[in-house]
């Protein structure tokens, strides 16, 4: 299945600005070859079953979102920011997204074209997402704290035609990061920039306000529901991020499934997870629209500010990766009134230490755990009415439509035996942008090899015990160990390095660099590691926060580093 259809001509007389310095293109740009992502087709019996059960339908993502936004025009949509706040309604966001969609359509962007955005939790991120979906384009969110190394790879590998970004945010100067990249991105035709008052834009950038001032797009594009709707990049076993492609059917099934699994909200939820990440995208931009709940975003997770907003506006918070909860309950401003607003919290996207769950329970907070990934977002979960030991010590049972197996060397294991988790379901992704990765990720019958290790008890509840995939999940964000290792091997004084997950009471996990120093030289320290990675352009959230120096790394008989032994040592207090 091709990733996107051939791009048609732009509307007559349309000016299209290029992202590499050229001011104009001819009105008719002509077709360009679509990348062949060779996405998988689930077995026919599975697909028919998902359609029959109502998990799959023919609703494009743009139609689902546009209809729900229109039905609930009066619901609040608020973004809290020291530099770019916004307050309005679903209707206002819908109207903005229709104008942005009109601007994209006028530029010849349409079904199958990739539209990327790298923005904090601002209204323009939502408007860009909804606009691209409206015209049938493939949305490519980029986490706002990614550096030029990650951004350049994602834009190039996805073939994004248009990027929406900010001029700057915090310590990030997005335009300075993009300047040296533009010549390496032949598909990128335009960069639209949300301005925060930081000075004039370079000539190659378009003010986002110009997109927002276009004539609105009245119609939702009719597209093949099995075609790509979303490509989300996640770190994993490869040194570069992996492009995870979801179809209109799979992301629609996930929205409906997750919306049904969540309890009725006792208070509006304030979201701090980045909307460029799968957790924030689903939790803040998609599921609330489907459920008909107001959207409240904050662009910097400052626990003091979050607690103040909660108290003043009656907002709930703390859901998502473990760090969002622990940062609030650890803060001296946290009061019984705040705890009452966090009475029901769902945790997922990173490890949930039992000590955190026990502490939250003692504070009167009902905790439930869920398990999934960008590839298969919601595999198992718990509900708040389950027994305490199931809620705090397991990751739940398979959600409706989902199945899992515990496998060792292709053999299914019984209760109590740990093995690799294989899953399948209507919300499982269509494949990677790299066909070779897709082929390796799936077993016959449509089973996704998660590379996570788990055990199922006699009641069917899953508990994650380890990972075979070489990643660290830090506060819900995946960190590729291989990516960090390859950069650290270029640091003087490093002979060998293994980057592994170390337990973290606040974040769930953080990266620990285990280094065998080169003989005869001074071994590196943690500051030199972090400086080296910063100079390489790697996002600082990926930098190791712990360093161990060893004489030898543990190995198998074939010479492979036994990272599971290093993780065990770290969990044992090494």
Q: Name the CATH superfamily assignment of the largest domain.
A: ANL, N-terminal domain
Write the CATH architecture name of the largest domain. Answer: 3-Layer(aba) Sandwich
Task: Supply the number of structural domains.
Answer: 3
CATH topology of the largest domain: Rossmann fold
Give unreliable regions as ranges: 1-34
Number of helices: 18
Q: Could you give a short account of the major beta sheet?
A: 6 strands, antiparallel
Distance between the termini: 49 Å
Average pLDDT figure: 89
Please compute the radius of gyration using only Cα atoms: 23 Å
Provide the CATH top-level class of the largest domain. Answer: Alpha Beta
Count of individual beta strands: 27
β-sheet strand percentage: 15-25%
Shape field:
globular
Q: Which structural class do the helices and strands define?
A: alpha/beta
Helix content: 25-40%
Provide an overview of this structure.
With 574 residues, this protein is an alpha/beta fold. The chain folds into three domains: 60-72 and 84-224, Rossmann fold (3-Layer(aba) Sandwich), CATH 3.40.50; 249-467, Rossmann fold, CATH 3.40.50.12780; 474-571, GMP Synthetase, Chain A, domain 3 (2-Layer Sandwich). Helix content is 30%, strand content 23%. The protein contains 18 helices and 27 strands. Strands 16, 17, 18, 20, 21 and 22 form a six-stranded antiparallel beta sheet that branches. A hairpin with a 3-residue loop joins β20 and β21. α2 (61-71) packs across α4. The longest helix is centred in the first third of the chain and has 17 residues, at 90-106. The termini are far apart.
């Amino acid at each position: 299945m091709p990733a996107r259809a051939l791009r048609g001509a732009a509307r007559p007389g349309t000016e299209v600005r290029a992202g590499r310095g050229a001011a104009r293109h001819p009105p008719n740009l002509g077709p360009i070859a679509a990348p062949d992502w060779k996405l998988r087709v689930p077995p026919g019996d599975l697909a028919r079953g998902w359609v029959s059960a109502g998990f799959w339908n023919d609703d494009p993502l743009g139609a689902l979102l546009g209809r729900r936004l229109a039905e609930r025009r009066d619901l609040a949509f608020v973004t809290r920011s020291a530099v770019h706040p916004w307050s309005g309604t679903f209707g206002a966001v819908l109207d903005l997204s229709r104008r942005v969609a009109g601007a994209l359509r006028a530029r010849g962007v349409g079904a199958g074209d990739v539209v990327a955005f790298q923005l904090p939790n601002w209204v323009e991120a939502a408007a860009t997402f909804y606009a691209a979906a409206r015209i049938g384009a493939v949305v490519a969110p980029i986490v706002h704290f990614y550096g030029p190394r990650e951004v350049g790879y994602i834009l190039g590998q996805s073939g994004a035609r248009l990027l929406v970004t900010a001029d700057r945010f915090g310590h990030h100067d997005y335009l300075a990061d993009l300047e040296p990249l533009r010549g390496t991105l032949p598909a990128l035709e335009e960069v639209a920039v949300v301005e925060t008052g930081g000075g004039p834009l370079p000539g190659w950038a378009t003010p986002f306000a110009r997109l927002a001032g276009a004539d609105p797009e009245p119609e939702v594009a009719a597209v093949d529901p099995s075609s790509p709707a979303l490509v989300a990049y996640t770190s994993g076993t490869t040194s570069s991020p992996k492009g995870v492609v979801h179809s209109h059917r799979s992301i629609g099934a996930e929205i409906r499934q997750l919306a049904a699994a969540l309890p009725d909200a006792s208070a509006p939820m304030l979201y701090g997870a980045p909307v460029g990440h799968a957790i924030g995208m689903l939790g803040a931009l998609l599921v609330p629209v489907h459920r008909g709940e107001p959207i409240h975003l904050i662009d910097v997770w400052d626990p003091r500010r979050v607690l103040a907003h909660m108290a003043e506006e009656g907002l709930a918070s703390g859901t998502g990766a473990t760090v969002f909860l622990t940062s609030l309950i650890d803060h001296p401003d946290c009061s019984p009134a705040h705890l009452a607003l966090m009475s029901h919290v769902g945790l997922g996207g990173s490890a949930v230490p039992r000590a955190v769950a026990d502490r939250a329970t003692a504070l009167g907070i009902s905790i439930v755990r869920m398990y999934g990934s960008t590839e298969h977002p919601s595999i198992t979960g718990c509900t708040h009415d389950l027994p305490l030991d199931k809620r705090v010590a397991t990751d739940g049972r398979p959600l409706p439509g989902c199945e899992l197996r515990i496998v060792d060397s292709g053999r299914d294991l019984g209760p109590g035996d740990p093995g690799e988790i294989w899953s399948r379901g209507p919300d499982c992704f269509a494949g990677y942008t790299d066909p070779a990765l897709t082929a390796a990720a799936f077993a016959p019958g449509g089973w996704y090899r998660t590379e996570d290790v788990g055990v199922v008890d006699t009641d069917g509840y899953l508990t994650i015990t380890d990972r075979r995939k070489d990643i660290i999940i830090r506060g819900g964000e995946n960190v590729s160990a291989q990516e960090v290792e390859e950069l650290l091997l270029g640091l003087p004084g490093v002979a060998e390095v293994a980057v592994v997950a170390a337990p973290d009471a606040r974040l769930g996990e953080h990266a620990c660099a285990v280094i065998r120093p080169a003989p005869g030289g001074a071994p590196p320290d943690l500051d030199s590691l972090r400086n080296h990675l910063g100079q390489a352009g790697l996002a600082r959230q990926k930098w190791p926060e712990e360093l161990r120096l060893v004489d030898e790394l543990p190995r198998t008989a074939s010479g492979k580093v036994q990272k599971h032994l290093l993780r065990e040592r770290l969990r044992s207090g090494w």
